[in-house]
Specification:
heterodimer, A: mainly alpha, AhpD-like, 0% strand, globular, B: elongated
């Protein structure tokens, strides 16, 4: 680990979270809220595609329990690089993956057509929640890359009771 | 800027942007808490802060 003096923990995430419980607790809450805000299979497919584009092998190797419980299997994940043409993917997933890829590569390049395609499948509220969740997942992955966090608990183990709102960061 | 999705109201927020507070309110509240937590991080030492800045610049391919 590039940073000395981290508290002990089972995973890289746990060590950072034990050292700075307030901000990492708040980030864990945001990640959990993002998974609550949208379909877990859609978000997992986009999370894994983002991990490929951001060159994050640790995130690519990880699987989210909520998506597996909702029916996402390894065969479909293995076919993810072929999402535009693979018969394993339906139009709803293709619309979301197209927007997610553009979002990561250059968010300013997201077009009216990208948004309209997602809205046609998810509705306006669903599109808003999906894009917000995409933004959270991207922020989380970039933060993990920057901080050298390779091992992360599953989303439901990530969230812990946050210290009081007024607490000062201890380090 | 014209919103790309229909919004529940035409109201603007204090920043002059379309008010989206009725959409995904739990996620918005969590993000607000994260902003507050990050703002309070005054006690991270300057060496750690600089190391994080440089590591982030590398990941963003920013050489300035």
């Amino acid at each position: 680990m590039w940073l000395d003096g981290l508290a002990p923990g089972d995973t890289d995430w746990d060590r950072f979270a034990a050292t700075w419980p307030v901000p990492f607790g708040a980030l864990a809450d945001v990640v959990a809220a993002a998974w609550d805000a949208t379909d877990p299979v859609l978000l997992e497919l986009c999370r894994l595609r983002m991990a490929t584009l951001l060159a994050s092998p640790a995130e690519e190797a990880r699987r989210t329990g909520r998506a597996r419980a909702a029916g996402l299997d390894d065969a479909k994940v293995a076919d993810l690089p072929r999402w535009p043409t693979s018969s394993r993917f339906i139009d709803r997933e293709r619309a979301c993956l197209a927007l997610a890829e553009q979002f990561v590569i250059d968010a300013n390049g997201v077009t009216d057509e990208h948004v309209a395609a997602v809205t046609a499948h998810l509705g306006a509220d669903g599109c808003y929640g999906f894009v917000q969740a995409l933004s959270v997942v991207e922020t989380f992955q970039r933060a993990c890359l920057t901080l050298g966090i390779d091992s992360v608990p599953d989303v439901d183990a990530l969230t812990r009771p946050s210290p009081p709102d007024h607490a000062e960061v201890p380090r | 800027m014209t919103p790309r999705i229909p919004l529940p109201s035409d109201e603007l927020n204090p920043l002059g942007l379309p008010d989206t507070s009725a959409l995904a309110p739990a996620l918005a509240a969590a993000r607000d808490q994260l902003r507050r937590a990050a703002f309070r991080m005054r006690s991270v030492d300057p060496v750690t802060t600089e190391l994080v800045r440089i590591r982030n610049a590398r990941h963003q391919t920013c050489f300035f």
